[in-house]
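EI: anyone free to look at a 207-residue chain?
SC: sure, send it
EI:
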Amino acid sequence: MTLSRKIPTQRGAQRRVALRYLTVPFAVGLLAACSRSVAFKGTNISSSPLTMSVTLTDQNGRRRTLADFGGKVVAVFLGYTHCPDVCPATMGELKLAMQQLGRAADQVQVLFVSVDPKRDTPQVLARWVTGFDPRFLGLRGTPDELHILASQLKVFYGPAQQPSSDEIMHNGNVFLFDRHGHIRVLEQTGVDARTLAADIGLLLGET
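SC: here you go
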C-alpha cells in the first residue's frame, strides 16, 4: 500500500522505508502458506487464496474477467492516472519488461485497474495505458466491483488523509497470474523491469 504524493527530497528515504514497512508484512504473512518450488525474484504466493474473479470494464467498454486472457501470463497493477509518482514509474517498468521479453511479450497481458474511476474515464484510461504500450488494458469498475476486487486481492485503496488532497492511497504491488489464471507472484512496490521480466519469463516457460 502506498500514498502517491510529491514530498521534499530529504524525506525521500523516510518515505521509501514507510513504503517497505507497509508492503512487506503483507508478503511475509503469506509466505508460510506459499510454495517455494519456483525461484521467483518476487514473493511466491502460489498457495495463497488470493484470486481475481470480478468482472470489470476495459477502456473500450468491453466487460472483462481474468478468464478472457487464458493462455497468457497476466500482470495486474492497481493505481490511478493522476498518480504523480508510483503509478507511472511502475507502468514504465512494466513497459520495459515487455521490451526485454521480446516476442514472448505477446503472450503477456498487463491490466491496469483504476481505483479512481470518476476521473479515469474510458478516454483518459485509453490514452494513458496505451501511452506505455498499445497492448496494455485499463480497467474500471463500479464501487461494488472495486470493493470485491480489493477483497479478493486483500488490497486497500482510499482517499489520502489530508482533507484538501485529491491523491489516493493505494496498494503498489504487481500481481502475476499464470496462463491458467492462478495467482503466482507478488512483486513489491517499486519493482524493476528486470525482476518483472525474469518472473514473467518463468511463468511463460511453464506448461
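EI: The radius of gyration is 16 Å.
SC: 👍
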